[in-house]
Amino acid sequence: MPAETPRISPLPQDEWSDLLKVVAETTGPLNIFTTLGRHPALFESWIGFGSMLLLKGTLSARDRELAILRTAHHRSCSYEWHHHHRLGLEAGLTEAEIAALRLDLDGHSWSADDRMVLAAADDLHARGTVSDATWAELAGRFGERELIELVMLIGHYHLLAFTLNSLRVQPEKHEEPGEGG
């Protein structure tokens, strides 16, 4: 089966739940939602959690998008990369910064604040935990809620990348094709 063939196709519109209809009215019929909508109970639980992290979290949009895009890169998740590239630009990241998210941390002159968020994503990817040194830096900047949220955000986008990559959810046809994260 070619990698571009979804393993589970998006749900046809005439089979959408009421919740999926509401989500699609807000975001458009994104393949992530119409695919995960095939499991209505799980979709309902997940959409609330994911929406909280994306829309109602305590982290700045810049910090959030740095963490998500770095995770998309680590997990080679082109779907996440496609969507969050745009959101990263909206959060104030430049094209050069987004491109640098695919490099080692020393490959770009990140601010100390950006660097510590990226180090947390790198630590979690490499070791499944945040190192004591990175934690100390983060704790000097963030309160308890932000620390919890940052770790959960990165973990959530790892989970989501595993799901999107395994189900082979495709970027929407109207988007420009791009490389995986």
From TrEMBL:
Lineage top rank: taxon: Bacteria
InterPro entries according to UniProt: AhpD-like, CMD-like
Domain Carboxymuconolactone decarboxylase-like: 40-103
A single GO molecular function term of this UniProt record: peroxiredoxin activity
Pfam family, one: CMD
Full protein name: Carboxymuconolactone decarboxylase family protein
Lineage: Bacteria, Bacillati, Actinomycetota, Actinomycetes, Streptosporangiales
